[in-house]
Amino acid sequence: MAAMRSDPSPTRLELLRGVPGFRGRTDRELAAAARLLEEAEVAEGTVLIREGADGQQAYVILEGWAAVTVHGEPVAALGPGQFVGEMAMLDRGPRSATVVAKTTMRLLSIGPEAFESFTGQPDITRSIARSLSERLRRQEAGQASNESSAQLKEEQ
Ligand code: CMP
Fold first, then answer.
1. What is the pTM of this model?
2. What is the rounded CA–CA span in Å between residue 48 and residue 98?
3. Beta strands in the chain (DSSP E)
4. Shortest-distance Cα residue to atom 22 of ligand 1
5. Which residue, judged by its Cα, is nearest atom 20 of ligand 1?
6. pLDDT tens digit string along 57-72?
7. d(C-alpha 130, C-alpha 64), whole Å
8. What atom of ligand 1 comes closest to residue 90's alpha carbon?
9. What is the pLDDT of residues 112-132, one digit of tens each?
10. Which of 38, 29, 125 shows the shortest CA–CA distance to 86?
11. Which of 87, 110, 131, 136 is the pocket-test mutation for ligand 1 (most atoms within 8 Å of CB)?
12. How many angstroms separate the CA atoms of 2 and 40, rounded?
């Protein structure tokens, strides 16, 4: 992955401003946050995260899209403003999914130190908690419909 400048450019601040959890921050606060992050550009097809692996790196997507698969099955597409790789950082478990760049992507890479600092900030923690909650809700709704279709099949 090609690491790029670490000096926060104005566009980088604008992009960061669009990330839930960073909204409403002053330029100064955004610049301080951006300095903790490394910007990276990855080509389409790059495996950002491999299911089952260890990993202590999360990302904020600035531009582009990634596909998330679990046991080879697509579960989600993630795009600008979204966090990826935060689960293993939170619970120190193995990676829950494989994440592959579907386009060229620009990312901000969040190492353990920056993650520690960000998760001490209520807005960011709330935004991560919200996305985990949405994910769980979607998953449970999916499971419920799978269960009911399995039940329907059994009853037929
Ligand atoms: P992590 O488990 O560290 O590594 C894989 C990442 O894929 C995970 O963190 C989440 O960021 C993301 N991910 C896993 N499952 C889903 C899902 N169902 N929907 C969206 N993103 C997911």
1. 0.86
2. 8
3. 2-3, 38-42, 47-49, 58-63, 66-70, 73-78, 83-84, 98-101, 105-110
4. 68
5. 76
6. 999 999 999 999 999 9
7. 22
8. 3
9. 999 999 899 899 999 999 999
10. 125
11. 87
12. 6
